[in-house]
Amino acid sequence: MDHTKCTLYSGGLKGAEAAFGEAAERMNIKEVIYTFEGHKLSRDRNTTILTQEELERERAELEEARRRQIEFHTGGQEMLEALTRGVGRWEPSHAPWRSPAR
């Protein structure tokens, strides 16, 4: 893998921010830490301070992604249940390709 083409994006979670950031630094991987006003960071390299508006927009996008993920999972479960019911009702005699009994 070409490390020069990689970037570590961090949300500044204590512990993880430091551990992954230090590992990225050792491997010469770029690092970007997203934070907000008043948030204490272990590492203060390459920080991007988000405004309240940006935080709210990102929160709304995360909520939408979570809603879609739940909807996708629920829809998949419903489809699997419907297919399972259909397979349970299927009988080999219903197969159109089956030749007539001799």
Characterize the structure shown.
The chain has 102 residues and is α/β, with parallel strands linked by helices. The protein has two helices and three strands. The chain has two domains: 50 residues, no CATH class; 35 residues. The chain has a three-stranded parallel beta sheet.
Spell out the blueprint of helices and strands.
Layout (H helix, E strand, L loop, with lengths): L6 E4 L5 H11 L3 E7 L10 E4 L1 H38 L13
Structure, briefly:
It is built from two helices and three strands; from the N terminus they run E-H-E-E-H. With 102 residues, the protein is of the alpha/beta class.
Structural class: alpha/beta
| Mean residue pLDDT | 83
How would a textbook summarize the main sheet?
A: 3 strands, parallel
Please provide the ordered H/E string of secondary-structure elements: EHEEH
Distance between the termini: 63 Å
Strand order of the largest sheet: 1-2-3
Descriptive labels:
102 residues, alpha/beta, 3-stranded parallel beta sheet, 48% helix, elongated
